[in-house]
Amino acid sequence: MDPAQRVDAAGVVLRGVGRAFTTPTGTRDVLADVDVEVAPGSTVALLGASGSGKSTLLRLVAGLDTPTSGTVEVGGEVVRGVGARTGVVFQEPRLLPWRDLAGNVALGLPRGTPRAEGREQVLQRLASVGLADFAGHRPRSVSGGMAQRAALARALVRRPGVLLMDEPFAALDALTRLKVQDLLDDLQRSTGATVLLVTHDVDEALHLADRVLVLGTREGRPGAHVVRDLRVDAPRPRDRGDSSLAHLRVELLELLGVPRAHA
What's the whole-model pTM score? Predict the structure, then answer.
């Protein structure tokens, strides 16, 4: 493990967080009374049905949105807009087509980074995601998996204490998805960054996360909140065939509305 790759991991705390949106038919509560604590250096996956507020919660932590109630803290400081301690990877790579991969990754550098130092950091990050030989390639000339790895490098080059990922592998084919999951796992363990991962994939959550939070609603209560906080005690890196995770998979699927089969 290269000490130079380590970052200053930050914790994430949500206290009584709610987010409501005004619609033509009235107010819609997406999140209500969400209380979450994420320890520095841990990986936490957010699961839930579509519309359960997972991406909304991630945007609040990123400072891309503001809670209607409650507070969001990163590293002990209340989030007020986009901060330097967080990096975000979206479902789509969102690379600028007129820039090569190195140029796109450079967009993540902190302001004021000297040119030579920034170039070195960009090349190091490209190498860390397996793209050392593609720095000069444009996004249209690389695969979807490579483009998403470049987006990951762009987020990591700012050395974030918290890495926020909103279904970053959803658009990838199955085999590429598994490979990039393993890459993320390696990078998280080498950098020590805190990772908050939104996913619909139970197996992905169990493979990568130290904890899995399930967002959902209860009858008579508006907005989604955490209905299950499940700790995954298996050491990482994990074997996808680990039978000790089977009961957790069944439990999570049932929470998501997929009952176990009965003979």
Answer: 0.93
